[in-house]
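Lay summary. Proteins are chains of building blocks that fold into shapes, and those shapes determine what they do. In this project we predict the shape from the chain. Here is one chain we studied, written as its sequence of building blocks.
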Amino acid sequence: MIRRPRIHVALCVGVHVLLLALMSCARRNEDLLAESADTLGVQSSPPPINPAEVQHPSPPQPKGLQIGRSDRLMNGWASQLGEWTAMWREALPGFMVDSTWGVRPQRWTPARRSVAGDLERRQATDLTLQLLGIESPDGRYLLDVDAYQDVMVVGDSVEVGGEPDSQPVLIDRGANVEYPLQFCGTSCGFHWGRWLSPTQFALGGWQQADDYGQWMQGSLAIYSIRDSTMRAYETRIVPARAFARYQAAWRRWLLRRYRTLPPPA
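And here is the predicted shape, written in a compact code that computers can read:
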């Protein structure tokens, strides 16, 4: 009996094995392409960037002209505003009171409330009030530059904390009442005060000029108790790194005030 050749059987088996290998390779290639697409997708969609971490250009400076010599009252107070101008000169070299922009006087109608707690005891024991409490020449009024502030002196440094908000208060000792002057949140604050006369005082502070805390601006308000008016002034806008120099000067001012305090009883 003559056997038929079985070459075709072996050939069929070989072709079948080859097809299975090709299909396996194709599936593997599809998996690799899918993984590659996922990887490319992640790379093409980077995580969002925090706008505060990107440097932004300066907002527009105040409109109009600086007051120059046109504001006789402001220039007349220049010598009494020397501490404030010196602090801002650290951020703005050559800064003077005539370098500011001003607005027309506004009416000042503060709310009235009773003085909380024993004011005399607070003045004797509260370091923050001792540093930021500015007495009028006749002793009747006390300007608390920021009632929400908390200042601690540690050696030759100053630590500042307290509430994130800021509120200056005028206290009338004779009537035992106080008048909140302004209020602001984390985007502004109040640092400095000075009496110009028994019924006029200056209140200096700062404010953010943009939404990211990269640009800052100084503010000054002149209050008159006699006619209930307030005159507002503002400085040129400066970058945060320049504002840091102003803050350092303000802390040095606090230290100087601390060193003039009488020793505790």
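What the prediction tells us: The chain has one domain: 67-259.
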